[in-house]
Amino acid sequence: MNKYPVPNHNDSFVPSEKQWQLVWHDEFDGNSLDETKWNYRLNYWGVPSPTFTSDGVEVSDGSLKLHLLEKNGEYLSPHLQTGSNTFDIPKDSDGFWPFGAYEPVKFMHRYGFYEIRCRLPKNDGWHAAFWLQAPGIGSHPDPRFGGVECDIMENYKQHTHGLIGCGNGWGGYGKDCKWNGHFWFPYQETEDGWHHYAVDWPPSGYAFYADGRKIGVQKTPVSEIEQFILVSTECHGYHKNLGNRGGLEKKIGSGNSCGPVEVLKSAVLPDCFEVDFVRVFDCDEY
């Protein structure tokens, strides 16, 4: 990996075999979130999420902090994105169309190198992620044209298994879903707690990186459409009735009631997912 200097900011680390140009970034230099670059994800599969919020977003001292919040025994945290999933948008008319009006797209891109520098949350029961998504994933039988969920970093197994995840899923989230394109690797702490997670997405496949180490390569399928960026957090236990995702949702109490997983009730606050920068690079090859 080579250093890519950005004046007055921490360096990026990019694959050395290519020539890169910075095409989009947020260095979080101000005192509030730049909403020309980011949307808030507040809905989940067509209904308002009980745990996603626009509160708890802090930009200060050159970094973004996405805070874990507790309100009257419930837990919430922010989920940022530069676009949106079509299937997230609640229906807003009486007609047959099952979705509401599209949210403004702040940034979408095809191919390139996507990097985050971040410090991970300290408590179990919620997790952070950096990923790419397609608005209509699963809406085309060929994932080249429907898009590929590209998880550059997820830490929901960090506290229970000592692992960080990266990799791909495609085919939507029903019976056609394929979720066998992931890698889980041991979490290794750094001296200052900061980490670099990245993916190189050329037409030939995806290469995943953590702190300058190549973790794995996913050759196929490869999305050929523009996708958007997510910098997200999620409290576990709240989305039980909307789909099963690897144990992140757990029903508590009786009937269909949902709420925080037990471990989250012991979280020591304050806690946050802290992000120094998000950067996107292109190269002449694609």
Total count of domains: 1
User: What is the H/E order?
Assistant: EEEEEEEEEEEEEHEHEEEEEEE
**Biggest sheet details:** 9 strands, mixed
Give me the CATH fold name. Jelly Rolls
N→C terminal distance:
19 Å
Form type: globular
Would you kindly provide a written description of the structure presented here, covering whatever features stand out?
With 286 residues, the chain is an all-beta fold. It has a single domain (21-283), classed as Jelly Rolls, CATH 2.60.120.200. Helices cover 3% and strands 42% of the residues. It contains two helices and 21 strands. The protein is globular and about 50 Å long.
Structural descriptors:
single chain; mainly beta; Jelly Rolls; eight-stranded antiparallel beta sheet
Question: What is the element layout, followed by pairings?
Answer:
Layout lengths: L1 E3 L7 E3 L5 E7 L12 E2 L2 E2 L2 E2 L3 E2 L3 E4 L2 E5 L1 E3 L2 E8 L30 E8 L6 E8 L9 H4 L1 E7 L3 H4 L1 E8 L7 E9 L8 E7 L4 E5 L2 E6 L9 E8 L36 E12 L3
Q: Can I get a quick summary?
A:
The chain is mainly beta and 286 residues long. The protein contains two helices and 21 strands.
